[in-house]
Design goal:
This protein is α/β, with parallel strands linked by helices. The chain is 31% helix and 17% strand. It has a domain of 104 residues.
Length: 455
């Protein structure tokens, strides 16, 4: 979080309070548990809770350490001045470096000449040795999810100029690689000049295990980076494979050519993959790539021998697209995993684009396609229910976010969409409440219809 209030002298030295003998004395463990409750998973809540943590750090010496641990555990920086201020705080109070495990760069200055990203690895070099999570999120001022009512859109430096893509120093990857503990990287709404810039950012992190890209674009595809090329000829094989520890890959609303390249390069090590359908074709991207290794049919999973779980986010256009279900079948046909159970998870992308009935109808179409596919390619259901072939088994999961009163309605419709799998116990439903104001259906305020009764 923005650390400047915590670094003030009053927060560190001036923490002696006048005793109030009439005040109740609570055990410090109770106070610490209350302070811990100000930690939040959701970004919107964290912005508000930061102010409370600042105040807690100023109460007394007994509260300061716990408040600072929560305040600095996951730091949010909005622009270049915030990065510079944070770096100065760490220089003056180096013990705070041990508290930082997460870092978020967010705001609308990432695509400007004053972007904080290029300077981040230089400003924080050798300081954040325990940094594990990095989120880079460019917010657009017109986004419905990020209104002015809660996000502080500060002024952009007068000398800064807006750019079409992320400005990265040529040696950015070299400095970024110094963060050897980063295992999770989340990138939202960024545009890179070339695909190689995205690939370098990913490949330079030696401990990276989870990559989540949403709304990420590349201005030009360019040739296939050397360490992403096939390794059939050992004499020309790179010494180190691309992102050797990457196991979880989420590519949401990303151009199909970029998806193909990343799945091809990381496939042999992936355990979980998530994509959205219909696949995205960025008409503005310059496609001067390597046609010998790429195709536009879909995603080839033949190299994903360790893949255990495939998540598919379904957009309403998957019905009108006309080819998406054929590409879905082709993708599943190519899945040559050696794991005992191949789990396919289906979800709405996003819920606010659907009514409940609309998504249930879409699941019905997907159910007919998938059940036909499994009948064509699999042996009859095994004793424990799943379809399988040569020791492999399929299992379908439907991911739903809704209120508890809708659980029975969804359960009935999901079973109707996959009747064969439901009878053979090859179907599952994960039902969770909506998170914050997200994941709301178009008819979110409606109540489930009353079941009809016969006399």
């Amino acid at each position: 979080m923005d650390p400047s209030p915590v670094s003030s002298k009053s927060a560190i030295d001036g923490d002696r309070a006048h005793p109030d003998h009439n005040a109740s004395r609570l055990p410090i463990e109770v106070c610490e548990n209350i302070i811990d409750m100000l930690d939040s998973l959701f970004f919107v809540d964290r912005v508000a809770n930061t102010r409370a943590l600042h105040r807690c750090a100023l109460v007394c010496r007994a509260w300061r350490v716990r408040s600072q641990r929560n305040l600095f555990y996951s730091v949010v920086l909005h622009d270049l001045p915030a990065l510079q201020k944070f770096s100065a705080v760490l220089d003056n109070t180096p013990h705070l470096c041990e508290y930082v495990y997460g870092l978020t760069l967010t705001g609308h200055t990432l695509h400007t000449t004053a972007s904080p990203l290029s300077l981040l690895p230089i400003a924080l070099l050798i300081k954040l040795t325990k940094l594990q999570d990095v989120t880079i999120n460019r917010l657009c001022e017109n986004k419905v999810l990020y209104p002015r009512t809660w996000y502080p859109y500060g002024p952009v430096l007068q000398s800064a100029k807006f750019l079409q893509y992320l400005p990265l120093h040529p040696r950015f990857a070299l400095f970024f690689s110094a963060f050897t503990a980063i295992s999770r990287l989340y990138i939202f709404n960024l545009t890179f000049g070339h695909f190689k810039d995205l690939a370098r950012m990913i490949n330079c992190l030696p401990a990276l295990r989870t990559l989540d890209c949403e709304g990420v674009r590349c201005m030009a595809l360019g040739p296939l980076p050397f360490n992403m090329k096939p390794r059939a000829n050992g004499s020309h094989a790179p010494a180190r494979p691309f992102a050797p520890n990457l196991q979880v890959l989420c590519l949401l609303n990303v151009d199909i050519h970029c998806v193909q390249r990343l799945v091809f390069a990381c496939g042999p090590r992936l355990r979980q993959l998530m994509v959205t359908m219909p696949f995205v074709y960025d008409i503005e991207m310059v496609l001067l790539g390597d046609p010998t290794t790429e195709h536009t049919v879909g995603v080839d999973l033949s190299l994903c021998s360790t893949l255990e779980r495939l998540d598919i986010g379904l957009d309403p256009e998957v019905v009108t697209d006309g080819q998406s279900f054929d590409k879905l079948k082709a993708m599943l046909h190519s899945w040559d995993s050696k794991v005992s159970i191949q789990n396919v998870h289906l979800r709405a992308w996003y819920e606010d684009d659907f009514t409940r009935k609309g998504f249930a109808d879409l699941l019905g179409t997907a159910g007919r396609v998938l059940e036909d596919l499994f009948h064509e390619s699999s042996a009859p259901p095994s004793a424990d229910g799943e379809f399988g072939e040569q020791g492999r088994r399929w299992r379908i999961w439907v991911e739903l976010y809704d209120w508890e009163v809708w659980r029975d309605w969804w359960s009935t419709h999901v079973q109707k969409c996959f009747p064969t799998l439901a009878k053979s116990d090859g179907l599952g439903m994960n039902f969770l409440p909506p998170s914050y104001n997200l994941r709301k259906w178009k008819d979110s305020d409606a109540l489930p219809p009353m079941p009809t009764t016969t006399t």
